[in-house]
Structure formats: structure tokens, C-alpha cells
Amino acid sequence: MRWSARELTMIDVVQISDLFSIDGKVALVTGGSRGIGEMIAAGFLANGAKVYISSRKADVCEATAASLMERFGGECIAIPADLSDLAGAQALAAAIREREDSLDILVNNAGQAWGAPLEEFPEKGWDRVMDVNVKGPFFVIQQLLDLLEAAGTQDDPARIINIGSIDGLRPPRLQTYSYSPSKAAIHAMTRQLASELAPRKVLVNAIAPGPFPTWMLSTGVGGGGDVDNTDWDAVAQTNPRRRVGTPEDIAGIAIFLSSRAGAFTVGEIITCDGGIVVS
């Protein structure tokens, strides 16, 4: 296809509602039953997407799907899956394929962390984190690639969003020795797959979140996994923005990357951290 100089310089007025629309798209959010995954799933659902969420615990996954539909309407379907190995990725892909002929958006959010002093850090804490955070996303992409390619067009490619971390961009403050390398690996994998898949009409990008009020972070900052009673104000004081992230922050970037507004953004690692990395 060729364009004239006039066509390339013409500016059409595009409504915000069209520019950032994901209405009618089909999305899968792994690790979507809580935390950042639930925040992204909620944002997608509230803006007209059909959303699948997966997590290891079936009852939690079902409860989250029901809660999200009660709040935002639309259709949210729970598919339990353990994505630490190829078999889990294959099972998830098969379950999606039974229901859909194509997949517009894949968010690889399922993740795990492990904290222990350096001298005591166990092999299990290395292997489990690497399996869930690196191997899992790769094989989920591999197993769902045909559905993503079926959805992608020149004007509206399919999208893959990998959830990395600022801990993959700079040394973490917590003793999570396998988590940081796993997220650096996700960032590297994002760039490699972005280069390969962009010509196939599948765009790959990553988000690197900072502090959000999640179960995972609560376990690391003294809240013991009790999200509601963790001292998030204390965490906020260590952030240049003097707050932790909100659902709007993370869902907004995910929606941008999934919409027409993000259709020329490829292979980026976008921080969502209140300024920690640049500070």
C-alpha cells in the first residue's frame, strides 16, 4: 500500500471515545482474580470488552468474575489455570479456543514473588518464580498466538501486554532475588517478541508497575497479605508522587496500549510507578 504526501500529512479529527475504545474486544487477563490483574480486568470490562480472567484457585477466580460483572456489567468469564508450565498454558489456550475464534488482547499478569535472606534463599523460591513469571507468559503467548493472529489486522493489530516491574529496571529494596531477574527477563522477552510479531499484526508491549495496593506487595511491606489493613500511607511517603497506584493508573495504560491510540507503540516498557525509576 502506498500513500501520497498529502494523505500522510492530513489530520483527521478523532473523538476520544474512538481513539481509546476497546468496546467489543475480547481480552484475557492472567492472574486476573486480584491485584493489578483485577484492576486491568475491571477497566476492560467497564469499557465494553469481553473479559476472561484466570488464576490458580477456581473459587477465587469465579468470585472475582461475578463481582466484576455485578459492578460493571458485561461478560467476565473465569478459567482457572496454573501457568507455571506448558501443560497449564495448553489447558488455558484450549479453554479459550472452545469459546472464541480470535483473541484481541492478552495481558500476561500472573506472577509470583519470593522473599528470603540471600544466605537462606531456597532453590524452590528461584524455580517457582521463574516458572510463573517467565516460562508461563512465553508459553501462554505461544499457545494463543493463532487466536491473536486471527484477531489482528493492519489497522487494528492484536495486543499482548506483559506485566513487568520497576524491580526489573533497578535493584529492588526487598530481598526478592528471583523476582527482579524474572521481570528483567520479561522486559527482554517483550522486546524480542515485539520485533518478531509486529509484522504479523500482533503488538507486544510491557508495563512496569511500581507500588500498588496488592496482596503481593502487602506481604513485602509488613502487611502480611492483608491489603485493607496495610499502611499504604507509609509506602506512599517513599514515592515521589506521595501515593500508591490506583486502578485508574494501571487500567489507563492497559487501555491505551489496547486501543487505536496505542496502535503504533511497539516493544515499549512503560513505567507506572509515580516517578521512582527516574528519581
Polypeptide structure, described:
The protein has 279 residues and is α/β, with parallel strands linked by helices. The chain has a single domain, classed as NAD(P)-binding Rossmann-like Domain (Rossmann fold). The protein has helices at residues 5-9, 16-19, 35-46, 58-72, 86-99, 123-151, 179-197, 215-220, 232-236, 247-258; strands at residues 26-30, 50-54, 76-78, 105-108, 158-163, 202-209, 269-272. The chain has a seven-stranded parallel β-sheet with strand order 3-2-1-4-5-6-7, sandwiched between helices. Helix 7 links the parallel strand 5 (158-163) and strand 6 (202-209). Helix 3 crosses helix 10 (247-258) and helix 5 packs parallel to helix 6 (123-151). The chain is globular. The mean pLDDT is 94.
Q: What attributes characterize this protein structure?
A:
single chain, Rossmann fold, 7-stranded parallel sheet, alpha/beta, about 280 residues, 10 helices
Helical residue percent band: 40-55%
First-to-last CA distance: 44 Å
Tell me the CATH architecture: 3-Layer(aba) Sandwich
- CATH top level assignment: Alpha Beta
Please, how many helices? 10
Strand arrangement across the biggest beta sheet: 3-2-1-4-5-6-7
Mean pLDDT over all positions: 94
- What structural class results from the helix and strand content? alpha/beta
Fill in the CATH topology.
Answer: Rossmann fold
> CATH homologous superfamily?
NAD(P)-binding Rossmann-like Domain
